[in-house]
């Protein structure tokens, strides 16, 4: 019996020594993230694959309907949603426990309004059907363009058709025009003889006003009750962007695999050289996003201004009032949370 006890004790001591030599084992915090199939959200895949946040278990799932994602946040089943940046006022109106915490990227040519044969001006679209994601950024984009060009925003019939279905509707003549992101816009222009671009997101007006953009949203529970995890999650995303800038070819491959897209389609959107200027999407790094939030000194790119997040909130809110999705324009702080950027910046983090 004594020998057995000694043997057991020796084994326990050896096990403890080995565990100590290997270092402490920390439990990973799970972060559940969702977004639709889009290269601009692919940096989550880089963060996970490259282990840029070793104490986080980053779980990204593709959900094509952003409204489903936000409902899952409300149900406590998601922590983060990457989506277009216009949703927050609608979410606030519906009482969803979510905040826009970062401007993720800006469309720099990847979005365009494509018209079918015979349509050259806003007036030509009067009474005709235009495919958009109703209640989404595409609808605001088209409506603003119509008003800029002397037509009422409601002079067209908006049809809730997107992506492949909008492509098919354009080819079949079911709609007169459509808002597209890549690769659907380029594919339509190639396939439909006589089609043309009415407006494209790399025009200075759209860039300066940051009209067509993506954002990252976090649940109130993550922001308020798991603050350290929220900060680590945000840092992981910006570390992934910094890594991609240094390794664009490998990074695009990781994003393509994670999103189930071809590398060529990812390159069409993000570019090949890591500058964010040779594709159709400009990716904000940490400092630029913090400046847009007003959480770091200096101005963001494209003649944008420090703290423009509030102006963007007001812009989209005013349009949702026009479209009847919300009743009134509320204060930006009801739906925007820039304190995470501020806390990271004040800690010395620079991305």
Descriptive labels:
D-Maltodextrin-Binding Protein, domain 2, alpha/beta, single chain
Describe this structure in words.
- By secondary structure, this protein is an alpha/beta fold.
- The protein folds into 2 domains: 29-106 and 212-346, Periplasmic binding protein-like II (D-Maltodextrin-Binding Protein, domain 2, 3-Layer(aba) Sandwich); 111-200, D-Maltodextrin-Binding Protein, domain 2, CATH 3.40.190.
- It is built from 15 helices and 11 strands.
- The chain has helices spanning 2-22, 43-49, 66-74, 88-93, 137-148, 163-172, 184-191, 204-208, 220-225, 227-246, 248-259, 263-270, 286-293, 308-322, 339-346; strands at 29-35, 56-62, 80-84, 98-107, 111-115, 129-132, 157-160, 177-181, 196-200, 213-219, 281-283.
- The strands form 2 sheets. It has a 6-stranded mixed sheet with strand order 2-1-3-10-4-11, sandwiched between helices. The protein has a 5-stranded mixed sheet with strand order 7-6-8-5-9, with helices on both faces.
- α10 packs across α15.
Q: How many runs of DSSP E, i.e. beta strands?
A: 11
Placed side by side, the strands forming the largest sheet appear as 2-1-3-10-4-11
Level of helix content? 40-55%
List the uncertain runs.
1-25
3D shape: globular
Assign the CATH class of the largest domain: Alpha Beta
Mean pLDDT reading: 92
CATH homolog superfamily of the largest domain: Periplasmic binding protein-like II
User: Ends: how far apart?
Assistant: 60 Å
**Strand and helix order:** HEHEHEHEEEHEHEHEHEHHHHEHHH
- SSE-based structural type: alpha/beta
Helical stretch tally: 15
If you compute it from the alpha carbons, what radius of gyration comes out, rounded to the nearest whole angstrom?
A: 23 Å
